[in-house]
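Q: A small favour: would you put together sequence and structure tokens for a protein?
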Amino acid sequence: MDPIVTVTGGQVRGRTTNGVTAFLAIPYASPPVGPLRFQAPHRVANWDGVRDGVELGPTSPQIPYPAPIAALLGTFITPGDDYLHLNVWTPDGGGSDLPVLVWIHGGAFSRGSNTIPTYDGTAFARDGVVLVSINYRLGFPGFGVVDGGATNRGLRDQLFALEWVQNNVAAFGGDPAQVTVFGESAGAMSVAALLTSPLSTGLFHRAIMQSGNVSTAAELADARNASVYLADQLGVEPTVDGLATISSAALLDAQTALAVEFANDPNPDRWGASAVRAGLGAMTCVPTIDGDVVPQLPVDAIRAGAGHDIAVLAGTNSDEFRFFTVPAGLGAAVTIEALPFALARYGIAPAVVETYAAQRPEASPGDLLAAVLSDHAFRSDTTRMAELRAHAPASTHLYDFAWASGIPDLGACHALEIGFVFDNLVNSQSITGPTPPQQLADRMHSAWVAFAQHGNPGWPRYEESNPAVQMFDDPESRVVLDPRAAELAALRAGHCA
């Protein structure tokens, strides 16, 4: 007989397969439509009878990835208003007091969902962890500044889902006092915001950031510039009343036009310096510093001690930005003459290239571009967070994922590590290639399980006197001290804006 649990809203029926029970598409908040579209999330209405939780649910409104990226990640979009839901995987028979992992997906705050096959939580449940994956509002509905509406609605959705976990995860065998929140890319940037938010107190106890940073948040006034542009395209005011009658499809069209305009002209005088910095020249809808959910830039909050009582596991992939430059053809097209101009867009001085070129004598201009931008967007900031937390009471553990994809030229690119973390390589081969090493997945997945269980992934904490970084590679994974220090120092010294 299929198992049934009682949660906020009513009863849900799951399905057990090979010792793991999955409960899919459980609503944790009311559909954000009508008057709720630009407001904070509200409690889900009670339903009658037993709700089937055996199929994946709708996704937050979004457009597909461009073709080169879609070829690596796939396209998983399902329409429907009831997309503020979550999935739970738990060992059959459950038990009690199991550690809990809550997954926040990435997608530049405008794409992605908990329905992506790589995010299947079966392996975590197999190994004694309750895995919860959540959806949240994306794009302008999630993060745009709307006069009269709530700020940071996507982050408020995440907080609301974490409250749901606190109130309900025991029904699935989970321990609400052992919750680890983890995410990748925009999901990791979300974790950084949650780690430093006063509204997250007591909602989680450990945090994992995969390929994120602690500097993604814009000042409200700067972020509003994008909202004014979008509303102008729609012929309305950037208010709750002005946007009330705009369809989701029309809003997505305007959001897409905004993204193109921003990418073509990331001018701080036009969009605001903090918005351009937070958006990395590409993301138009990001968290905002609202004095409530996000009181200040996460890196500044960490410097002041926020989140220092929460153990953190964080890291990046060695070749993050090849995910963006190689499929788009930019890596092959850029010349050594054009390289300084490409980096200047990100406020990076030309002299930085000299250090990277000296450290990588065989690198092409495209290789150098990807290396510098990988560190600029991800590694430098992640390392800075570890440095700021070096004396915190709770530990910080750093990793570097160095295994190169079997897809030509991708290297250890952005998003490549996810299938290894989830021990779900069979659903990840569009980005890993056909023969990813299972032994690397065994090591990485086990480290995440260990961190969820007791806060130690299996290598030393990061300290000033011992800046340990776990390098995940195949056939060997090892701990190294302060890898690529010369490049990182050059990058930090060479920011001209």
